[in-house]
Amino acid sequence: MFGLILLAAIIALVVLLIAKSIALIPQGEAAVVERLGKYTRTVSGGLTVLVPFIDTVRERVDTRERVVSFPPQAVITQDNLTVAIDIVVTFQINEPARAIYGVDNYIVGVEQISVATLRDVVGGMTLEETLTSRDTINRRLRGELDAATAKWGLRISRVELKAIDPPPSIQQSMEMQMKADREKRAMILTAEGQRESDIKTAEGKKQARILSAEGEKHAAILQAEADRQAEILRAEGERAAKYLRAQGEARSIQKVNAAIKASRITPEVLAYQYLEKLPEMADGQASTMWMIPSQFGDTLEKFAKSFATQDAEGVFRYEAPGVDEETRKMAEPDNTDSWFSTASSPEIAEAVAQANAVAQKPVDEDPAQLAQRSLRRPDNETPSLEPKAQVAEQPVEPAEGSHAASAEELE
């Protein structure tokens, strides 16, 4: 029985020695080892062999980067306003031995140094500068903390101001100020918009008036040109009509004369016609009395003897002269079928088609292009109308197959 108890005690002692001689340090941690109460070494990341009951692990230190948020701190600004500022510090332990032996509690040390540095930095700024200078405050805090904690084996990687809370009254005043500033900018933008709208409206009215005046100007020019061409064409038509009327009268006289010659009228017929017209002549209102001289018969007898020929019975008879071939052709009736034809000649139809094409052609181009061209053209320059004037001044030629052609054939 005693032997079993002794064996169990020996086994327990061996297990205790093994447990005291082996230390397992996880990755990301470091252990400070002391030998008989004195620092000997720092071990990390693995299995460490210790001397039982002589070497001990003082403390395990987390070597990963840590983020610590401190509660809001009351800080007074340069303009005597109290603000509450939250700080977030990111640091990492590079030398665990210094963090253990250099300071009692490095977390509290970092907090106190951060608060003191923050009050020093913010105390030299106004509230507005504090709210708008976060980057400057962060850089100064990081520099001060890094310099102060270097002897503790710490490395300050980042310092951020999480929140800056001014007093409620100041916050309300700031909100009212921001609201007034926004309303001011809104009113300025509204006024700018109204001004731009008025300018655009005025520009549009100006452009519309310019285009309207330009259109009226072109319309007046085209109307004047149309009136001028109409007058020219009307004069040409009247000239051609007078010419054709004169040609017709000349032709009529020639036809009457040829017909008289071809009919070989004798003085007896003329005398008979004269006697028929006497009652009509006497029927006039101004003709109240006619006087025939007594020698009128003798005069007619002498006139007949001078132009007549005495026959075998002693009677003077008038013989009409012979009619030549040209007079006989002149006396023959003309072909007047084409005079009453209502069909238009090809030349007139072509002229009407050209006039319709010109009438249907747009007067002006695009109003915007017309306005730009008018603005580029000098004020003393007027649109050229030479082509239209040249067309209008051309004489009107009689169409073939018309009455004018018949008059020219009569000549």
Tell me about this structure.
This protein has 411 residues and is α+β, with helices and mostly antiparallel strands. Among the domains are: 45 residues, no CATH class; 101 residues, 2-Layer Sandwich (Tetrahydropterin Synthase, Chain A); 136 residues, no CATH class. It is built from 13 helices and 8 strands. The strands form 3 sheets. A 3-stranded antiparallel β-sheet has the order 2-1-3. A 3-stranded antiparallel β-sheet has the order 4-5-6. Strand 1 and strand 2 form a beta hairpin. Helix 6 crosses helix 11. The protein is rod-shaped, with a radius of gyration of 68 Å. The protein starts with a helix and ends with a helix.
N→C terminal distance: 177 Å
* SS-based class: alpha+beta
Element-level helix/strand string: HEEEEEHHHHEHHHEEHHHHH
Detail the poorly predicted runs: 378-411
Query: Beta-strand percentage?
Result: 15-25%
Subcellular location: Membrane
Family: Belongs to the band 7/mec-2 family.
Region (Disordered): 354-411
Organism: Corynebacterium tapiri
